[in-house]
């Protein structure tokens, strides 16, 4: 059967997973009466809840006499490690662009990787049936984007289609019949080249491992594209590291290929096809799986370095061990090492005491997803504020800068520009009206300045603004950037919070906790209305007397609190604070729970 390997790339929420659903349906991958969940490719619980793709996943459809392997890639730059590996397996990309929003930052990030690899793009303008769609403007912006990213003449001469993924149609003309996706299937077959590896089927077997999975019955499973030769069940092969060092020799116990949403056992994997192998015990991502006669590893795509680091430690608060089962540093370390093995964008390092671990990654969202997965698995952790990783170039300290694209109502643009260019040391690159009373602002802002900004941004824009960010490059250190301006309210007692005490404390600031919640000394229970920290007693009840008179008691009416999400909590804390994460709770606390210790630490820092 003829073969094509493609990846679908797009910005978050531009509809690529929905489009893959329709490709699967119209290719006959499902039975007519088969019950299939919406966004079938988002198999992870977190992906379904957040509506984003976190893990790259492959599927396969058959169109006439051609099998098309389709890879659904993450749209967010924080998961860029997934994108870079996956693109080395495909020969073409379908770039999906929202006809109303046009190409966005994450589109730019993934597209630059695809163009650098020489992949030929097909542009699909999605959601053209929306009332605010401007497909012609979006198409012009895509061409400008390709030109800015250094696309060659072949890549600039890209074919384009108009589509509505949710309605299941795609046409070469905007006013086409709007029936089905046949035009997209045919364009993929005609425009994307067949894998060049097919010519090397008679050579020695080689395959670059790009994703790592596990199965409770067969153990480790490595997925990649067969670069040359053939691999059969029972064949003895070896694994080579990036530098050519022999890692292990093993017998292949299973060969699987993607068929629809599932994987199917096959007898033989051939050059050009994407397959999964089992049988190894040590081999991992970026290793070369090859025949015993091969001694040179395949080139692995370099991965962009991490930009932030977060300290994961044991939970040592008075409430530790009540929710989670996995609380020891040894168990936390094993889990983090397992994550680093399959996720090449994450690096783990031990701290001097051995009780905490420095975890480096791409961004707050990537860290938030890792922590959320761990708490669902029963872990208890204490998490520090993210720190940006600096590096030295030519004797000068440089820091990472991100390109921020903001769509905001015209009336709030002044407040946003003042914050990102003044307080957060950003540089304004572009500002233009984007229609419907909105302004688009593009700025280059140090990554340090964006930590904790998103909540403030939503407040400044009354919840109507949209902020997207992507790694841009490195710039000389911009000096001190002011963090959170307000202090916090700290509990000075252990016990359960009392409604009457919280009601009296409301004039001091906004609360993070509700009555009957357990608190302890050093726990942060609210935000102070001034810039200093304040120790308060949330357990103080009303003094009782023998005298009662009608109408003298005031009713206790508390202002509803807004719970912070995990990412918001991590971005909110200062350097002397931690986030306590358990399966059932997210709490903020001071690093030092004892007040005397806190004062000593403050003097030392001062």
From TrEMBL:
Catalytic activity, as annotated: GTP + H2O = GDP + phosphate + H(+)
EC top class, as a word: hydrolase
Annotated keywords: Cytoplasm, GTP-binding, Hydrolase, Nucleotide-binding, Ribosome biogenesis, RNA-binding, rRNA-binding, tRNA-binding
Major location category of this protein: cytoplasm
Keyword Cytoplasm (UniProt): yes
Compartmental location: Cytoplasm
Positions of GTP binding: 13-18, 126-129
EC number from the UniProt entry: 3.6.5.-
Domain Tr-type G: 1-196
Gene3D superfamilies: 3.30.70.240, bipa protein, Elongation Factor G (Translational Gtpase), domain 3, P-loop containing nucleotide triphosphate hydrolases, Translation factors
Domain of life: Bacteria
Assembly, per entry: Monomer.
Family: Belongs to the TRAFAC class translation factor GTPase superfamily. Classic translation factor GTPase family. BipA subfamily.
Reported function: A 50S ribosomal subunit assembly protein with GTPase activity, required for 50S subunit assembly at low temperatures, may also play a role in translation. Binds GTP and analogs. Binds the 70S ribosome between the 30S and 50S subunits, in a similar position as ribosome-bound EF-G; it contacts a number of ribosomal proteins, both rRNAs and the A-site tRNA.
Name used for this protein in its record: Large ribosomal subunit assembly factor BipA
């Amino acid at each position: 059967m003829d073969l094509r390997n493609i990846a679908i790339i797009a910005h978050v929420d531009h509809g690529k997973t929905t489009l893959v659903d329709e490709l699967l349906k119209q290719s006959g991958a499902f039975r007519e009466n088969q019950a299939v969940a919406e966004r079938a490719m988002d198999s992870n619980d977190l992906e379904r809840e957040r509506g984003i793709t976190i893990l790259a996943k492959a599927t396969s459809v058959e169109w006439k006499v051609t099998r098309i392997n389709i890879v659904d890639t993450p749209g967010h730059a924080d998961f860029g490690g997934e994108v870079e590996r996956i693109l080395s397996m495909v020969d073409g990309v379908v770039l999906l662009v929202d006809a109303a929003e046009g190409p966005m930052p994450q589109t730019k990030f993934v597209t630059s990787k695809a163009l650098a690899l020489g992949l030929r793009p097909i542009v699909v303008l999605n959601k053209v049936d929306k009332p605010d769609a401007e497909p012609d403007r979006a198409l012009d912006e895509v061409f400008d984007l390709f030109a800015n990213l250094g696309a060659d003449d072949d890549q600039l001469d890209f074919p384009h289609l108009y589509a509505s993924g949710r309605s299941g149609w795609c046409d070469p003309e905007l006013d086409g019949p709007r029936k089905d996706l046949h035009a997209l299937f045919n364009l993929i077959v005609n425009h994307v080249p067949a894998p060049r590896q097919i010519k090397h089927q008679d050579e020695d077997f080689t395959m670059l491992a790009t994703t790592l999975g596990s199965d409770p019955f067969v153990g480790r499973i490595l997925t990649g594209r067969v670069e040359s030769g053939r691999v059969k069940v029972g064949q003895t092969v070896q694994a080579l590291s990036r530098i050519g060092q022999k890692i292990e020799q093993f017998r292949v116990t299973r060969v699987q290929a993607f068929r629809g949403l599932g994987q199917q056992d096959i007898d033989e994997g051939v050059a050009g096809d994407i397959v999964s192998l089992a049988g190894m015990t040590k081999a991992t991502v970026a290793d070369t799986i090859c025949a015993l006669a091969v001694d040179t590893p395949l080139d692995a795509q370099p991965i962009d370095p991490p930009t932030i680091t977060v300290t994961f430690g044991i939970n040592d608060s008075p409430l530790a061990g009540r929710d989670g089962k996995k609380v020891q540093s040894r168990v936390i370390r094993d889990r983090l090492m397992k994550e680093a093995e399959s996720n090449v964008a994450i690096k783990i390092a031990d701290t001097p005491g051995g009780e905490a671990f420095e975890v480096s990654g791409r961004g707050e969202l990537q860290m938030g997803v890792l922590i959320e997965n761990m708490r669902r698995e029963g872990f208890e952790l204490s998490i520090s504020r993210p720190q940006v990783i600096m590096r030295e170039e030519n004797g000068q300290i440089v820091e990472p800068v991100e390109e921020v694209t903001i769509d905001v109502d015209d009336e709030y643009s002044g407040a946003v520009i003042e914050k990102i260019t003044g307080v957060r040391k950003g540089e304004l690159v572009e500002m233009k009206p984007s229609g419907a009373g909105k302004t688009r602002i593009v700025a280059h802002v140090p990554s340090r300045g964006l930590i904790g900004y998103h909540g403030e941004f939503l407040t400044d824009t009354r919840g109507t603004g949209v902020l997207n960010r992507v790694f841009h490059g490195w710039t000389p250190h911009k000096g001190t950037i002011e963090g959170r301006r307000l202090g916090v309210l700290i509990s000075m007692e252990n016990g359960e919070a009392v409604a009457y005490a919280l009601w009296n404390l409301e004039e001091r600031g906004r609360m993070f906790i509700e009555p009957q919640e357990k608190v302890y000394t050093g726990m942060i229970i609210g935000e102070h209305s001034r810039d200093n920290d304040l120790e308060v007693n949330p357990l103080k009840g009303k003094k009782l007397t023998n005298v009662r008179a009608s109408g003298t008691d005031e009713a206790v009416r508390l202002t509803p609190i807004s719970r912070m999400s995990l990412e918001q909590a991590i971005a909110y804390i200062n350097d002397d604070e931690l986030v306590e994460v358990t399966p059932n709770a997210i709490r903020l606390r001071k690093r030092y729970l004892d007040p005397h210790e806190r004062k000593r630490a403050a003097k030392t820092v001062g």
